[in-house]
Design goal:
By secondary structure, the protein is an alpha+beta fold. Helices cover about 30% and strands about 30% of the residues. A 5-stranded antiparallel sheet has the order 1-2-3-4-5. A hairpin with a 4-residue loop joins β2 and β3. It binds zinc ion (ZN). The site of zinc ion has 4 residues, from α2. Zinc ion binds next to α2. InterPro entries: Peptide_deformylase, Peptide_deformylase_sf. Its EC number is 3.5.1.88.
């Protein structure tokens, strides 16, 4: 499987991803590959659409725990909104402040097929929300102020050109 990090401009990043139906050997292998990819790229999260797969799962590591998150749901947003600088492997070199709720109550399936329900806060909640957005076709730059978006307009335009080129070359990656 030729997996490559997809850049803004790639239509797969703008699609609403669909549910994973079953966790089998080849899917677990894919999770492993993506985990290695995330660490290699120095990311703290990597969602399936970011490697061209329009499915609802992502990997994240907040520095305390590696989570493999399948078919996630955000049940409730908790606490006040907070502002934090975010970046994204699909929008390399751009870091901007994003406002998000401080915490989330979430439910998902892990790689062992167990249903996990937990409350996440601060940095962990931040990563979860960012990755969850990827499954909805939302990128963090959609959530920044018009003023800060204006500052990176040129760079985004360049990235989009490259993103479209990669999309044309690789297309969407289908998994069963
Ligand atoms: Zn991202």
């Amino acid at each position: 499987m030729d997996l490559k990090v997809r850049l803004i401009g790639d239509p797969v990043l703008r699609k609403k991803a669909t549910k994973i139906e079953k966790i089998d050997e080849s899917f677990l292998e894919l999770l492993e590959i993506m985990t290695n990819m995330m660490y290699r790229e120095d990311g703290v999260g990597l969602a399936a659409p970011q490697v061209g797969i329009s499915k609802r799962f992502f990997i994240m590591d907040d520095g305390k725990q590696l989570r493999k998150v399948i078919n996630p749901e955000i049940i409730e947003f908790l606490g006040e909104e907070s502002t934090f600088e975010e970046g994204c492997l699909s929008i390399p070199g751009i870091f901007l402040n994003v406002k998000r709720p401080e915490g989330v109550k979430v439910k998902y399936t892990n790689e062992n097929g167990e249903i996990i329900e937990e409350e996440l806060h601060e940095y962990t909640a931040r990563i979860f929300q960012h990755e969850y957005d990827h499954l909805e076709g939302i990128l963090f730059i959609d959530k920044v102020s018009t003023a800060s978006k204006a500052k990176v307009k040129g760079k985004i335009k360049e990235l989009m050109k490259e993103g479209k080129r990669i999309a044309k070359e690789l297309g969407e990656v289908e998994i069963k």
